[in-house]
Structures
1.
Amino acid sequence: MMISKLVMATNNAHKLREAMEIFGPLGIEIISQREAGADCSPEENGATFDDNALIKAEAVYNIVRLPVIADDSGLCVDALQGRPGVYSARYAPKGEECVRLLDEMKNVPDEKRQAHFACSIAYIDSEMRRCFNGCCTGMIGYEQRGKNGFGYDPVFIYAGRTLAEMKAEEKNNISHRAAALRELYEFLKERQGE
């Protein structure tokens, strides 16, 4: 099934630009849900990242009836039994996520500070529903470092540096979202060739 237009279940300009850069070589036009006429924000009450990505994608698909992608992602900390997980965006007031996380982790030793960012991207069209996943594994530091990034980036350490200490292109090469988008790219490339 050739795809000429893909609706991204977001109005986030950064996410749209990233998707346009990745899928541009396939000749697929990426538009926001607002541009497609889907002004909705369904409740993300799923138990997993896949569930939440599918909830968003289905809500938009049911309005636009075009191929749709939607993502959900978050931070999973081993010492906190996987929290904040699917509640990453609601774990603390905006801007205070790192403060709360560092407080909860203050007595956790080095060898137990493992964590990973997970991303699920749901794809829906008239024929299928499918999720693509990506992961970035690292550890939680003891303080916030770096000025780049957002959310938990200042405390998430990958290869000795926090994500907030990396340039955007460095982070995008190793990020959980980039890994999921690469999986989706390969899938769409195959579909374009059918």
2.
Amino acid sequence: MNKAIHTAVLTLIAAITFTGCAKEVVETDNEASLRAFTAWVNAHYPDVKDTTGCGIYVIRDKEGDGDTVRDSSYIFQEYEIRALSDSSIVAYSGDSLARQLGQYSPAAYYGPNIFLYNKAATKAGLKDLLNGNGGKTPAMRIGGERIAIIPAAVSPVNADCIYRIKVIDQKKDIVQWQIDEIEKYMKAHNIETGDTTGHRGFYYWRDKAREQRRKVTVIDTAKFPSDTTVYINYVGRHLNGQAFDTNIADSAKVNGIYNASGSYGPSSVTWNADSTAIKLGGSSVIKGFSLTLWHMHPFESGQGLFISDYGYGSSGNNGIGAYEPLIFEIDIVKKE
């Protein structure tokens, strides 16, 4: 082989080998997302340089005059979350925005959102928004309000967002707070009954005035045998008196929750000596509802008032707030 050609071939092979061994730098999705987030912040808020130290940018801060938020406390917040891309509202508390957006429901809870603030478990973006993470932004105080831009990697909604939070209050013992709220309700409504059911935070009493209006006779020593089918009318309410669920058409209409395609009329209950096994229409119910029924006798009218441990707990459900006490009014009726 011609020496010049041989040298050229070796050079080409070396070039191919070198090129093939070169490592291509590939940007991950998270890196690309963070780069786009940083570019957006620099374009819209070029003067905002100080962050919490963990990638979120505080763009407005109003200091509160109450205690500093504490780890392992239950925080009561008003909040509004907007998408960074188009400023559309992703989540919120309070009824004013619900009305503006045409999303208001009379049955829904619109009080402060409650969550456990825990440095080990709270989503990083929300945690840093509250405590400043030891950076240039101080921890929030009760009454304070803060707006920050949060990247998707640490966002409570897993997307780049603008988060506005106002800290309304904080409680160390959320169960005791609920019991205090229940006792305020009972005092305001002249209900004289103690927590005598053996279940902390659950209260039951007969509604004798409603029994008189219904013109029924209740034998309070009579019990239902297990596997008996009984029928009930019921109304579930928030402590402000607004109904969120009922099988009584007139009550639904009065409370603005009537559904023309819904089913109204007495609901069947499968009785059981064990309150946890009581079923409504063949389905399991929350513990507070079944405990209320379990205390009742044939044709009795009663009310059960209970903390969220017997309801929907820390997450709430379909318009029920997290850690929200509830009340149910129940009448045991004839099927017709």
